[in-house]
Amino acid sequence: MRFLSRRLVMPNDLNFAGSLFGGRILEWIDEEAYIFASCQLDAKSLVTKHIGAISFEASAFQGDVVEFGLAIKSVGRTSLTVTCVVRNKGTKQNICVADDIVFVHIDAESRSSTPHGKTKAELDSIKLEAPE
């Protein structure tokens, strides 16, 4: 799994207990997973169809840097399924795991699903640049 981006936990990201709000982390996961999927497919016309199991494993607090690891789980004719792990950059402890995030490639005008033309083998061979 490649950890491709990072975010700083700011005061407006916290819940009443002073830890990272679950809704904020889900928003970030959806955005990061979309960016990953659209870069893999070289397509912008993707929609989130499904997010499967979500497991919150640890807390993050103001000032923590969290990083997002993403990997392709499966490739369909019109879809791409990814997994996302969010972890604390300093401790490497997993904060949240979101499995089975399904994106569907759509026609920009008709909004109906359309083949994206990629295979898992093609996508697995893509070399990604990760931040240092």
Automatic annotation (TrEMBL):
Q: Where is this region: Disordered?
A: 111-132
Q: What segments bear the compositional bias annotation Basic and acidic residues? A: 119-132
Hydrolase as a keyword? yes
* Protein name per its UniProtKB record: Acyl-CoA thioesterase
Pfam families, alphabetically?
Answer: 4HBT (PF03061)
Query: What's the superkingdom here?
Result: Bacteria
**Does the entry feature the keyword Hydrolase, yes or no?**
yes
The UniProt family comment states: Belongs to the acyl coenzyme A hydrolase family.
Q: Which UniProt keywords apply?
A: Hydrolase
A Gene Ontology annotation in the biological process aspect, one of them, is:
fatty acid catabolic process
Q: Name one GO molecular function term.
A: long-chain fatty acyl-CoA hydrolase activity
Q: Name one GO cellular component term.
A: cytosol
Domain named HotDog ACOT-type is located at: 1-109
